[in-house]
Every structure is written in C-alpha cells, then in structure tokens.
Design goal:
9 helices; Four Helix Bundle (Hemerythrin (Met), subunit A); 66% helix; Arc Repressor Mutant, subunit A; elongated
Length: 223
C-alpha cells in the first residue's frame, strides 16, 4: 500500500473544491516533502474522492508551481532550490516596493487601522506555531499593499507569495525575533506616516534580509 499522510486535514466526501487548498496546506506544513511523489491511489484513499477531481486539483497546483509532472515518472511536489529562491525574491523586490509606495500614497485612517491591527496580530503570533505565524505574516504584508491594488497586481503578488511561503516556512523560527521584528515595525511606521519612499526602501531591505536568512539557514536543504 502507498504512503498515507497522518495528522493532516481530511477532505470531506464530495468537497473536491477543497482539494487544492488541502494539498497546498499539506505541502506547506511539510506533511508532503519537496520532491515526494503524489500517487493518485493514495490521495483517493486519503480524501475519499474519485480520480477526476484529484487530477483537476493537481493541474491547478501545477499551474501555481506547487507540483510538477515528469514524463513517465508521475507527479511530485516541486523541489526547493536556491535558484528558485533567488528568482522569486528578485521578482518580489522589483514588484512589491513600488506597490507599497503606491499604497502609502493612498493611505487613509481605515487603512492605517487595518495595518496596525495586522501588526499587533503578527506580534502575538510570534509565540504560536509556524502556520499561524505565516498567516499573520502574510496578512500584515497584505494590509500594507492592499490599498488601491489592481486585480492583476494582486494575483501576481499572491502567486509569488505562494512560492516564497515554502521557503519562509523552512526557517520560520528565524523570522519571529530580532531583525525581522524590527523590519516589520519599520514597515508599519513608514505606512502610518504615509511615507511611500521610506516604505519602499524598508520593504526592499526587508526582502533582502529574509532572502539571505533563508539561504543561511538552509545550506543543506536547498539544491
């Protein structure tokens, strides 16, 4: 019998629309390792669904970069690599700082309150588990960008984050204290002040710090 997946979410019968989210969460949580094969029979047994919704889910996950299909070898979780890490953070530094500058220029009381709430939740999440912290981390960064953000920009940012989240979780504990914490405070303060230039500069620096910290802490796990 193929590998089963303990201690992971179970998809209720008939809820095939949840498969993409559940499998994605299993990958993020490490329940399915980078490079591990995804055997349809195992997944059918795990989620109690037919092969058709599973194949549709895997196609969606492949389009998002979470899995890859190899000729005559089936589907596997996309491996993590230093090249992909460098690529995604280079793109993020090109895209996100200008968007943050734009958001700060349209800052409002409501937007500032949302950013402050998200920052406070991120601080609280520092003592929680990695997925909880990652959710709070993502929401904080999103609150800084989601002011007049266009639909195409939003989709692009979310797609880049779906890739970078895998790498952040490899060293999540490293981002809860010290320099990253100060970075988040600096991002918060720049937005509240409506200082777009400062926010963009802090954002670019923050991405650089995170990238280098991931590289430093994953010397043995990245190809």
């Amino acid at each position: 019998m193929g590998r089963m997946f303990p201690d992971t979410p179970v998809c209720s019968p008939g809820l095939s629309r949840d498969l993409v989210g559940v499998i994605r969460q299993m990958i993020l949580a490490g329940a399915i390792a980078p490079g591990e094969r995804l055997v349809l029979r195992d997944l059918q047994e795990r989620f109690n669904v037919s092969v058709i919704p599973l194949r549709e889910a895997l196609r969606t996950l492949e389009a998002e970069g979470w899995v890859e299909t190899l000729p005559r070898r089936g589907t596997r979780v996309s491996p993590v690599s230093r090249a992909e890490l460098r690529d995604v953070y280079a793109l993020r530094r090109l895209i996100e700082p200008p968007l943050s500058r734009q958001a700060a220029a349209q800052q409002s009381r409501a937007a500032s309150d949302r950013v402050t709430r998200a920052f406070e939740e991120l601080q609280k999440a520092a003592d929680g588990d990695a997925p909880t912290w990652l959710d709070a981390h993502r929401e904080f960064h999103w609150s800084l960008l989601d002011v007049g953000l266009g639909a195409v920009s939003a989709r692009t940012v979310r797609q880049l984050w779906s890739v970078s989240d895998r790498y952040v979780l490899l060293t999540a504990a490293a981002f809860r204290t010290d320099q990253p914490s100060r970075d988040h405070r600096s991002l918060h303060d720049a937005f509240i002040a409506g200082d777009g230039e400062r926010l963009a500069a802090e954002w670019s620096l923050h991405l650089h710090v995170v990238e280098e910290e991931i590289v430093r802490n994953t010397q043995d796990s990245l190809t």
